[in-house]
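Structure catalogue
Derive tokens from sequence
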Amino acid sequence: MRQQEYVETTGELARASGVTVQTIVTYADAELLDYIRLANRTRLFRAGQATRVREILAQRMASRGRRSASAAA
């Protein structure tokens, strides 16, 4: 895979997804998100994974019997 496909840092993905950095790290460590690590240990995520993060969050909330904020509106 080409490195240029991986463009979002953990913080950028967290902001785009509306979640915390720790949530992104947790999902990445659970191998739910596709990323690479640079030599300085920075994670780079594929562009557009914010949708995937929101899907994971929605699935986890549903499995706990919670409604998402968008479902409550």
